[in-house]
Amino acid sequence: MLSSIRNNRKALSIVLWLVIIAFVATIFVVWGVGEKSNALGYAAKVNDKIITYEEYQTRYKMADDEIRRYGGAVQIENLPARVLQSLINEKLMLIEAERFNIPATDLELVSYIRSIPSFQVNGEFNIDQYEMVLRNNGLNPEQYEKAVKDEIKMRKMTNLIYQTQSIATEKEIENEYNYRKSNITVDYAAIPLNTFEKNIPANTDNASLNEYYNLTKEIYRVPAEIKVKYIAFDKNKFLDEYNVSDEQAKEYYDNNVMLYDKKESADVSLIYIIANNSDNKSMEEAKAKIDEAYSQLQAGKNFAEVADNYTDKNIIPAEGGHIGTVEKGMLEKDIEDTVFSTAVNTYSKPVKVNNGYIIAYLNNLMSAKKYTFEEKKDEIKETIKTSSSAELFNKYLLNEFQKIADRGSITAVQNSNPDYNANITELDFIAENEIFPVTAVAIKPETKNTLYKLNKGELSQIVLDGSMAYIFEIVDRKASYIPKMDEISKQLVIDYKVDKITKEGIKALESDLAGSGFENTASKYNAYIQNVSFVRDSAELEKIFKNDTVLIEQIIKTKNGSFLQKPFLLDNNFYIFKVAKITPPEKSGLENEKETIADYISTIKGNAAVDGFTKKALEKADIKFNQEFLNSMKIIIP
After folding, report:
1. How far is CA 509 from the centre of its chain?
2. Which residue of 56, 270, 355, 560 is most buried, as measured by CB atoms within 10 A?
3. Mind listing the UniProt keywords for this protein, alphabetically (predicted)?
C-alpha cells in the first residue's frame, strides 16, 4: 500500500483532499439545508440523508479550484463522480456517528461558530451579525446549527477511526526508513543512438516521408500568437482611495441597528466534564471528577491549570478552558444561568448540565449597551469597506469595463483619458505555447485558451487574480497553422531518420537484453559499464538521470541484482541499467527520522481506515441517485 501511494503523491494529495474536504464546513457548504434547495431537487439519497444539488455544486467548485492551483499538472479522472462519492462518504460517516451515539455539544457548536469571520464584528462574534448572514443566505440558526453539529459528529467519528487504526508500528517505521534511506548502486552503459543508423536506408523515399508527415504534422504546428494590451486594477489601492460617505454609513446603521444594540456578555472559562453516556453510572463518574477538580480549586490551585487537566480538548480546545466572550442567548440555559450569576474573577460551584458537569470562571462581564450612530460612524465606514470590499470593487470594475466597451477598445479610452496610461501595459507577440507573462492568465489554462480565441480588437472579460483584476485587448494576432511539407522538408527528413533509428535501436536492445542480459548487451556494443550510487529519496537521482520520472520510477522499483528490460533514450544515447546493489542505511539515523516517518505512515493508515470504514458502511446503505442529475453531470454509476 505504501509503495503505491509513493508513486503518485501529487494526485494522491487531491484524492485525499476530496475525502478531507467533506469535513471542512463553511457557511456555503450548508447551502441546501434551507428552503432554496427544494426547488432544485437532489443529487442522491443515502438512507434518510439527502445530498442536495447545491451541496454538490459547492463541493465540485472547491475541488476544481484546488486542482487548478496545480496549473493543470494534476489530472483527476472522473472528478464529478469522485466529488459525489465524497459527499456520499460524508453522509455515511454521519449515519455511523449517529449509530454510535457520538454527541455534538452546544459548547463545541459555540466554539466553532465563534471562529467564523463572517459572524464577527471587529474581530468579535456578534449574534445579530450571525443571524443576518444566515438570513441573507436563506438559512435560519436552527438549520445551520444542525448542519454544524452534524459536521462535528462526522469529525469525531473520523478522529475515532484515525486514533484506533492509524498507529504506526516500530516495524513499519523501520521498514519505511530502510526503504527511503537505502543506498542504491546502479550500473549503466551508454550506447550512441547512431550505432543503429547502419540498419536504416541512406535515402528516404517520398512515399514514406509523406506518410510520416501526415502522421506527425501536428508536431510541426506553429502556435497562435497574440499581441495584447491590458489594464490592471488593484483592489487594495482602490479601497485605500475609496471614501464611504456619511450617508452610506447612516443607511448601514439604520439597516443594521441591532448590531449596535449589544446584549450583556461575559468572558468565560469552563471546566467541563462530559459523561460518556446518559446512564447513572456515567453521570456519577462525571460527578466524581468535577468534585475532584473543585477540591483542587478550593485548595488554591489555578483555575486554568485545573481546566487543562480535566476538560476534554475536543470540547474546549483553548488553553485554560477559555471559550471567550459569549452573549446571553448563546449557551444552554443551565450553563448560561451559572455563568451570569458568577462574580467576576471567581468560579462557581459544580453544576449539573445536560450531558455532564461544569465549573464556570467569569473573567469579565460586559453590560448591555446601545451605541449611537456617531459613536460607531468611523467603525461602520471601515466595516462597509471591509465587508463589502468585493461588492464595491466589482461594481467599480463593471463600470470601468462598460466605459471601455462603450468606446470600443482600451486604446480609445487611453487616447481620451491620459490618466489610464499608468495602468496600461502593452506586450509584444506571445506564442500560445509560451508562459504568459501575466500570472492571472498563466495559472488558468481556461482563461488563456479563451484569450487566444479572441479576434483582433476584441476585449476579454474581467480576469480576477486575488486582489488584482485585468481587462485585455487583442491588439493583433497571428493564427496557428501547420507548415506545408515542402516548407519543413529538411527537418522532416532528419526527424524521419531519427524516428526510424530510435525504433530500430529499441527493438535491437530489448531483444539483446532479453536474450543475453545486461553485461553481455553492454559488451556487444562495446559500451563501458559505469556505476552511480544514491539514496532512494535523494534529489541526486533526478540530477543524474535528467529528471526522467519514468526512468526514476523504474529504477526505484527494480529489485537488487535485476536489470531494466527496456533501454531509455537520453541526450542521443540509449542507456541500459542494472540495480547492482541495495545497501540498507545505518540504524543510527532512524531516531532523527522516526517522528516524520510515523506521521507519514499514520496519515496513510488513517485514510485507508476511513476508506475501508466507509466502504463497509456503503455495503449496508440504501443509496438512491437522481438520474436527471447524473445525466446532467455525465456521471456513470457502475
Report:
1. 44
2. 270
3. Cell inner membrane, Cell membrane, Chaperone, Isomerase, Membrane, Transmembrane, Transmembrane helix
- Please check whether the domain covering 2-170+599-633 is classified as CATH 3.30.750.24: no
Angstrom distance (rounded) from CA 132 to CA 258: 10
Contact 182, 584 (CB under 8 A): yes
Residue 296 near residue 306, CB atoms below 8 Å: yes
Distance CA(79)–CA(576), nearest Å, equals 38
* Residue 58: pLDDT over 60: yes
113 vs 230 pLDDT, higher one: 230
CB contact set of 510 (below 8 Å; sequence gap of 6+):
565, 566, 567
Cα 259 to the chain's mean position, in Å? 34
Task: Please name the amino acid found at residue 226.
Answer: I
CB-based contacts of 49, cutoff 8 Å, min separation 6: 91, 94, 95
In whole angstroms, give the CA distance from residue 293 to residue 359. Answer: 9
What is the band of 351 on the pLDDT scale with cuts at 50, 70, 90?
very high
CA–CA separation, 503 and 511 (whole Å): 12
What is the rounded distance in angstroms from the CA atom of residue 350 to the CA atom of residue 331?
A: 17
Judge if 2-170+599-633 and 264-367 fold alike in CATH terms.
no
Q: What integer best gives the mean pLDDT of the chain? A: 83
Q: How many other β-carbons are positioned within 10 Å of the β-carbon of residue 213? A: 20
CA distances from 591 to 161, 586, 587, 596 (A): 27, 11, 8, 10
Which range (30-44, 130-144, 533-547) has the least confidence? 30-44
Q: Which of 291, 289, 303, 315 is nearest to 342 (CA)?
A: 303
**Across 111-211, where does the E strand assignment appear?**
120-121, 124-125, 183-192
User: Vertex 116, ends 239 and 71: CA angle to 5°?
Assistant: 65
Q: Where are the domains of the chain?
A: 2-170+599-633, 183-201+486-583, 225-242+384-478, 264-367
Fold classified for 264-367: Chitinase A; domain 3 (3.10.50)
H or E element that contains 465: strand 463-465
Weakest-pLDDT range from 223-237, 254-268, 484-498: 254-268
CA-to-CA separations, 330 to 49, 161, 281, 326, 367, in angstroms, rounded? 28, 31, 30, 7, 16
